[in-house]
Specification:
single chain; about 180 residues; mainly alpha; AhpD-like; about 0% strand
Length: about 180
Amino acid sequence: MNEPTTIRIEPLQPAEWSPEQRKLVQYAWDKGGFYNVIGTFARHWEASKRVGQMSAHALGPTSTLPARDRELLILRTAWRCAAEYEWAQHVQIARKAGVSEQDIQRCRLGPDADGWNDFDAALLHAADELHDDQCIGDVTWARLSERYSTLQLMDVVFAVGQYTLVAMALKTFGTPLDDGLEGF
């Protein structure tokens, strides 16, 4: 597996940010500080604004997914992409969204691990199928459709796709874990 051995793109430090950058990332400071993902993406500000819009949708109030379901999808995606930064950040977010420690660890094992209910297993199957085939299969789609609306089904794809993009970027750029985060 290709992995950088060094930080390839150093996170832009807050002292280097423009007033526009400061304004748009104030939410991160309000939540407790500087995140290397934001500093790294700030190096390409025009692109990061657009990537950030999709991340804001996936994590924010415009997403139609329940927070717990969303975090199961993101954790499984992070695990399948071997994205340590994404995994470490979203373990914290998943806990706040009500994902149990057992389910967090079970995300590593996949949809066929003992203990999942049918719907949670379908969510993980969706993440795996999108990772492997870039398409949710008919059986998984039917299972998700029993509970989810059209918009929710679309948000499953958008969440997995967005966090696959973020995983590729953070891994390729060699973005270091934030202080206090535990990786794999």
